[in-house]
Amino acid sequence: MKIVHNPEHHLHAPKTFIARGRLVESKELPQRADFLNAGIASLRHELVVPDDYGVVPVQLVHSQRYLDFLRDGHSLWSALADASPEIIPNVHPMIGVTHYPEGIVGRAGFHLSDTACPVGQNTWQAVLRGTHAARHAAELVANGEDAAYVLTRPPGHHAGIERAGGFCYLNNTAVAAAFLATQAKRVAIVDIDVHHGNGTQEIFYQRSDVLHVSLHADPSSFYPFFSGYAGEDGENAGRGYNLNVPLPFGTDDASYLAALDQTLQTVTAFRPEVLVVALGLDIYENDPLRAFAITEEGFSAIGKTLARLGLPTVLVQEGGYLAPELGSNLNKFLRGFESGRG
After folding, report:
1. What stretch of H or E contains 47?
2. How far apart are CA 217 and CA 292, in angstroms?
3. Which residue stretches of the chain are H helix?
4. What are the phi and psi torsion angles at 19 (to 5°)?
5. Burial letters for 198-234: b for 16+ Cβ neighbours within 10 Å, e otherwise?
6. Dihedral sign from CA coordinates of 23, 24, 28, 31
7. Which residues contact 111 (CB under 8 A, 6 or more apart)?
8. Whole-angstrom distance, CA of residue 216 vs CA of residue 244
9. Residue 246: which residues within 8 A CB-CB, separation 6 or more?
């Protein structure tokens, strides 16, 4: 398995995060990638630096005005009197908004759905290169590789068509799936992050060529709160091609694997040609968010279960935060996935 690594991820090092009204240290820091790298070192897989694809990959999944905001917003923000070092919104649009603001303060509120996504001077470069890693991995799989893993940060599955949220700016999982769909592939996305992949859902909600399924903690009292419910099954041509499986807090290995097995029946019925896994390691029992109770051995079993689909697979790193076992959990998952192929 090739590991496609974004070496410029460290350029995004957020300084601002407001949780429950308090300014605290972000849980999405460059050290995450260091832990992940350490976890795969013993696997001796080939490490690949992605090609530079420019903005082409992200134009398939995000609006142009959103991309313009991420590219140019920080310089416009910095020109304001007494501006903070990072873009932090202090206003958000009302429901039913019909006008797009002209000024950077309004646009910050429009495009940044929460305070977990400060935009710094180098955020655009870091997140764009992350999408290049996803595109490169997808291209490897489209050209015959059995599987490829995307090692990048920040994550992406909360990023919608034109909004950032939940540490996510550009949707790496969606970039991989959208490219594969252009290759006339039927694509199934399985999101195993502890949070609902609301951005990915939005991007593909009206499409029938990409199936999106997400197993996650019950959003009625967990981020992203406003989506991820069982009744959300797609719209128009996409009706029936979105499946949400909200699970209770404290879900353990056995319960999770039972839900995953049942969910994969829907994937199999879709008859996909390729699989994209949104690989959230934040389902771990000792992750800082502590919503689920998946053990290290559970990660191995999950990897084996997904591998048994027998599909060419792109594994895209999503969540999983600053727990000492982060790298070990990735190692267990990848070893399980590879043994499941055997």
Report:
1. strand 47-48
2. 7
3. 31-40, 56-59, 64-78, 104-111, 123-142, 172-182, 198-204, 253-270, 296-307, 326-341
4. -125, 125
5. bbbbbbbbebebbbbbbbbbbbeebbbeebbeeebeb
6. positive
7. 66, 69, 70, 73, 162, 163, 164
8. 8
9. 196, 216, 217, 218, 219, 220, 228, 229, 230
DSSP 42: G
| 90-137 pLDDT tens trace | 988 878 888 999 999 999 999 999 999 999 999 999 999 999 999 999
Of 102, 112, 98, the C-alpha closest to 66 is 112
List alpha helices for 41-147, DSSP H.
56-59, 64-78, 104-111, 123-142
Q: Assign 319 to helix, strand or coil.
A: coil
- The DSSP code for 246 is E
158 carries an active-site annotation:
yes
Give the integer Cα–Cα distance in Å for 331 and 324: 13
Tell me the C-alpha distance between 334 and 317, whole Å: 12
Dist. CA 40–CA 45, nearest whole Å: 8
The pair of structure tokens assigned to 213 is 């399924």
For 131, the 3-state DSSP assignment is helix
Choose among 32, 12, 50, 27: nearest CA to 127.
12
Write out pLDDT tens, residues 201-223: 999 999 999 999 999 999 999 99
3-state secondary structure of 275: strand
* Catalytic option among 158, 195, 196, 216: 158
CA angle at 339 for the pair 335 and 342, rounded to the nearest 5°: 155
All domains of the chain in start order, with CATH: 2-57+120-341 (3.40.800.20)
